Amino acid sequence: MTFNTLGKDLPFILVMTIMAILTKLLGGAWGAKMVGFSNTSSLMVGAGMVSRGEMALIIAQIGYQSKLLSEAYYTSMIVVIIL
Q1: How far, in Å, CA of 65 to CA of 71, rounded?
Q2: DSSP structure class, residue 69
């Protein structure tokens, strides 16, 4: 893993980070709302989901080891997962 291409991949990293945050936040909030949580509680559940990333790290590692992800994309994905 190298960080040499991060400057070039910055737009990709930003878009993926925003998408990851929004999908986790909205998915968690929607699920909580569906089971009867209030709006405030639903948003709290959604916000709590934003920090999960262990499984994404494992999947990225498997993809890199299987040669499905290039080194540049693997590095970018790790940065996105950490953010």
Answers
A1: 10
A2: S
Identity of the residue numbered 5:
T
Q: What is the pLDDT of residue 28?
A: 93
> In this structure, what token pair is assigned to residue 26?
């909205």
Using the structure block, give the residue that is written with the tokens 């893993």: 1
pTM more than 0.90: no
Residue 79 has phi, psi (to 5 degrees) of -60, -45
- Asked if the model's pLDDT at residue 7 lies above 90, the reply is no
User: Is residue 4 pLDDT above 80, yes or no?
Assistant: no
> What Å distances lie between residue 64 and 36, 67, 72, 79, CA to CA?
40, 5, 10, 14
Numbers of helices and strands, H then E, in the chain: 4, 0
Q: Are 33 and 46 in contact (CB under 8 A)?
A: no
